[in-house]
Write a structure and sequence with these properties.
6-stranded antiparallel β-sheet, mainly beta, disordered N terminus, about 45% strand, 1 helix, 4-stranded antiparallel β-sheet, disordered C terminus, globular, about 375 residues
Length: about 375
Amino acid sequence: MTACATETSAASATTRRSGFNIAADGSYAACLAQGGDPDGTGWFPERWTLSGPEPYTVPLPGQRPEAADSQVLPLPDGRVLIRRRGADRHDLALIYPTGPGTGELPVGFLHGESVRLLPALPCGTVYALVHADGRSTVWLVHGGPGLEQRAEIDGRCTGGVWLDRTGRMLALDRTHQGRTKTIAVDLDTGTVSPLLQITEESDDRLLLADPDSKLLLVRSNAPGTDRLGWGVLDSRRPVRFPDCLREPDRTAAIEPLAIQPGQLLMPEACAVVLRILNRAVLWRPSARTLWPLPTPPGWLVGCAWWSANGTLRLPFARPDQPYGVRDIISEALVSPLPRPPRPEPSEPPPTAPVSRVLPLQQAPLAAVR
């Protein structure tokens, strides 16, 4: 599941879409679309159905327009979980199409300075990350008997990457005492353990993880500047920062979107879809080159989903086609990319600053409260 930034597509009037998310099984997607009120500025939830032969959309307007910072999350059963910010709390509800209208089932509410829904698991279970009074908490909000706090952590946590498919191990980026490090949270026990620490002084964040290959995509300033790198979960090998992923400036930041699934314990052969500006490219750890992908016009920038059979799906919206999905099936996606003439060495030189710490570990370790 991925989320995209606001995308513009229009026929007679401009329709903007924001916060596009795809369910973990690829069946549905949801976003906020603009234009649900008479003056065309209000936002309303929109559900995309992606499992049929042709994608189609269903508007889910409520009794009043949604705020631009509302968050929608599609579930495998076709319902959409929505988080709305109120005066002193964040309300949660399930919305779904009911004939010409929109049905709504209240779920509950959470208090906090910020509340964010984490990516839904394939079974439809959803957790939320809450920050308040210098502490972060993780709550089970859908898929259980009710709202239930599962973990409490010192510091402000961001991110949220699943390390397994069962929904037990969650990686969060915790900012505490002036540094940002990735931690692993066991949601069954509530224990917290270190996961990613490249150097003691660096800020290290986990962007993506794949439970099959154990491939991790990270961002860190350990090399001296903020860089994109890769590592392997439960490995003693260091994080590496390939030159092909070096960003010339902040205007051309590289964002990892989706990792090829099904590559069991083969991290170096795993393909990764990256976003550079408004284009999608392909990269593998075993290669030193970026391969451009046929990005469709009107691509909902930053949104991509990889099916289990190797099909890469890029949703788009444009004036001549208000909703659509381009399926990319090519030899580059389903087979290993050719190795470059001069592959990178398997280990960085001993003098490289990032080679002194080998901290990628499988949680849980020592419990820390």
